Amino acid sequence: MTSSTARERYTLGHHPSVLRTHSWRTAENSAAHLLPHLHAGLQVLDLGSGPGTITLDLARLVTPGTVIGVDASGEVTADARARAAAAGVENVSFTVGDAYALDVPDDSVDVAHVHQLLQHVSDPVAVIRELRRVVRPGGIIALREIVYGGAVWYPLSPGLSRWMEVYQELARANGGEPDAGSRLKSWAMEAGLTDLRSTASVWSFESPTDREWWGGAWSERAQTSSFATQALETGIADDDDLVLISTAWRDWVDADDGWFAVPHGEIIATVR
To answer: What is the CA radius of gyration of the chain?
Structure first.
């Protein structure tokens, strides 16, 4: 571990409430900016592949090309392999790896895709440079990250306002940047990418099912996940704060007029 990564810690952890929400992600709802650039036969790297739901979609779209998913968690990687086997997707593989030092040759993939990883690392520019190393000239790097600070919701509540304060402070204490989506263009340029297009998209949740998926997960995370334990360890929040946050999320789920939206920044960059 280098000095630049010494204080990195994954804020969300791998609690079931986290993996449940991550498994909702698909190429359609989380990588739409990349889809027009995909075609059969491409070699794709999916960094931060997590449970592999986006990865499997990418593999289906580039068949007979191949996709390799790389994640730091061995447990989550094993689950992704099982998911691929159950789905019968054979042109995909999953491996445990380091985003700063990928076990991938220079100029060996056509597409490098990253979704919701750069917000959790202390040196995102170094990770983007590593992606640039493994993508062959003419290939593309596709990035998408959340902008937590841009989130808006209704009904308003002190508990959800406190959630935002705690999450922002904790994520930064862990070495990350919770508003990473707004920094993507700057980071990509600093990493030496010059041919790029920066766009935005939004996740929004309002139906009873969506509210339960998003708010129900956060209500659980607020008291049982790494978010909770780390907030207490660092002194950023106390037990009363976490109860307030958890209750506020449950109240939001139960509100018929509940609505939530959060923007994401996106990059498509061609490697030259």
So the answer is: 18
Q: What is the pLDDT of residues 160-206, one digit of tens each?
A: 999 999 999 999 999 999 999 999 999 999 999 999 999 999 999 99
Helix/strand/coil for 82: helix
Tens digit of each residue's pLDDT (9 = 90 or more) over 89-137: 999 999 999 999 999 999 999 999 999 999 999 999 999 999 999 999 9
Cβ count near 105 (within 10 Å)? 10
Beta bridge partners of 113: 46, 142
DSSP assignment, residue 215? I
Sketch the domain layout of the chain as residue ranges. Answer: 3-270
The confidence band for 220, taking pLDDT boundaries of 50, 70 and 90, is very high
CB-count exposure of residue 228 (10 Å: 0-12, 13-18, 19+):
buried
C-beta of residue 113 within 8 angstroms of C-beta of residue 58: yes
Q: What is the pLDDT of residue 4?
A: 40
Where are the strands (E) in 183-258, listed by range? 195-205
Select from 3.20.20.70, 3.40.50.300, 1.10.357.10, 3.40.50.150 the CATH code of 3-270: 3.40.50.150
CA 209-212-218 angle, 5° bins: 150
